[in-house]
UniProtKB/TrEMBL annotation:
<comment type="similarity">
    <text>Belongs to the prokaryotic pantothenate kinase family.</text>
</comment>
<keyword id="KW-0963">Cytoplasm</keyword>
<dbReference type="InterPro" id="IPR006083">
    <property type="entry name" value="PRK/URK"/>
</dbReference>
<keyword id="KW-0067">ATP-binding</keyword>
<protein>
    <recommendedName>
        <fullName>Pantothenate kinase</fullName>
        <ecNumber>2.7.1.33</ecNumber>
    </recommendedName>
</protein>
<feature type="domain" description="Phosphoribulokinase/uridine kinase">
    <location>
        <begin position="86"/>
        <end position="231"/>
    </location>
</feature>
<dbReference type="GO" id="GO:0016301">
    <property type="term" value="F:kinase activity"/>
</dbReference>
<dbReference type="InterPro" id="IPR027417">
    <property type="entry name" value="P-loop_NTPase"/>
</dbReference>
<keyword id="KW-0418">Kinase</keyword>
<dbReference type="Pfam" id="PF00485">
    <property type="entry name" value="PRK"/>
</dbReference>
<comment type="pathway">
    <text>Cofactor biosynthesis; coenzyme A biosynthesis; CoA from (R)-pantothenate: step 1/5.</text>
</comment>
<keyword id="KW-0173">Coenzyme A biosynthesis</keyword>
<keyword id="KW-0808">Transferase</keyword>
<dbReference type="InterPro" id="IPR004566">
    <property type="entry name" value="PanK"/>
</dbReference>
<feature type="binding site">
    <location>
        <begin position="91"/>
        <end position="98"/>
    </location>
    <ligand>
        <name>ATP</name>
    </ligand>
</feature>
<keyword id="KW-0547">Nucleotide-binding</keyword>
Length: 308
């Protein structure tokens, strides 16, 4: 990151990794197969040197949070309540938010099997394509107005109140739309990870923001040119999986000229996702508790911890 962020302590990778004694939980005790099946390109050095200290820091925050909740209940002379701890993960389209969320969930579950850890993406709270078209914002998918914010806020309220069987709508990158009548069920987790480009945004007319529900937040950061590269790599994966599937949104692109398909993808990146990153996503970076800064091959070279 070129600019200095005064309100953050900055740790280069070699400093950060000393903050937790990785030897005390050897990596081979973690099910490496699980990490590989999550994403076989995740660097195990990153898991050991970056994510393990991070998970331990998150656990410190989780314990503080629980203590504060119990103290509040004691002060009010009411019985202790179960309040889920919410973690938000923000960053550009294709920067690796959902991979980071899945990896953190896996490590948390492995290290603390007694905790119920669940995760969702805010993609499911996008308006369906038909609604975006009717509103005249079909080309603004991912922009603040393309999300059903009242529904997302209601969902977060329900989760925080520890209601059972709360439904989160689902989005499919393959169908390129919200899937009707399909839900993830969030059922009184100890920790819920909420990942999405909009999780740290402050829409101007809102009375309450998504980030008001977070007890901890992360921003995954990288040079936009690198993120474009990862976007195109993911696009290529989507094309390959669309080849034999006529129901896939990318089927027609997959069966035509690859050159045309990539021209299309670059245009989408420039006109939609990069525009969104500059206007609405990057300005939220400075609100995260932790910024993970990535360089080539998704390697994390620095971690920023907000001081205040
Ligand atoms: N740590 C990582 N190591 C290797 N590849 C990664 C890593 N994180 C993400 N990727 C790849 O980068 C692309 C975008 O990641 P994804 O998690 O889908 O991003 P987002 O949820 O931010 O849109 C995917 O192809 C994914 O496999
Ligand atoms: C659904 C999304 C808004 C969310 O992105 P994600 O962070 O899940 O990659 C995005 O993938 C998207 O569809 N943007 C619109 C332009 C495009 O990339 O097709």
């Amino acid at each position: 990151m070129a600019e200095q962020l005064d309100n953050y302590d900055q740790f280069k990778r070699d400093q950060w990794q000393t903050l937790f004694d990785a030897e005390s939980v050897p990596l081979d005790e973690i099910d490496l197969e699980q990490i590989r099946s999550l994403n076989d390109r995740i660097s195990l050095d990153d898991v050991r040197e970056i994510y393990m200290p991070l998970v331990h820091y998150i656990l410190l925050k989780y314990r503080d949070f629980q203590r504060a909740n119990d103290e509040r209940s004691d002060f009010l002379r009411v019985s202790h309540r179960h309040v889920p701890f919410l973690i938000g993960i923000a960053g550009s389209v294709a920067v690796g938010k959902s991979t980071t969320a899945r990896l953190l969930a896996l490590l948390l579950r492995h290290l603390y099997p007694q905790l119920k850890v669940q995760q969702i993406t805010t993609d499911g709270f996008l308006y369906p394509n038909a609604v975006l078209e009717a509103k005249g914002i079909a080309d603004d998918k991912g922009f603040p107005d393309s999300y059903d914010m009242p529904r997302l806020i209601q969902f977060l309220n329900d989760v925080k109140q520890s209601k059972p069987h709360v439904q989160a709508p689902k989005y499919s990158h393959q169908v390129y739309d919200v899937i009707p009548n399909e839900y993830d069920e969030i059922d009184q987790p100890d920790i819920l990870i909420v990942e999405g480009i909009n999780v740290l945004q402050l829409p101007s007319q809102a009375e309450i923001f998504v980030s008001d529900f977070f007890d901890f937040s992360l921003y995954v950061d990288a040079d936009p040119q690198l993120v474009e590269h990862w976007f195109l790599e993911r696009f290529n994966i989507l094309l390959n999986s669309a080849f034999n599937d006529p129901t896939n949104f990318y089927h027609e692109l997959a069966t035509g000229s690859r050159e045309d398909a990539f021209l299309y993808a670059r245009q989408v990146w420039d006109d939609v996702d990069l525009r969104n990153l500059k206007a609405y996503i990057l300005p939220t970076r400075n609100r995260a508790n932790v910024i993970l800064h990535k360089v080539r091959h998704h390697t994390i070279d620095a971690v920023y911890l907000r001081k205040y």
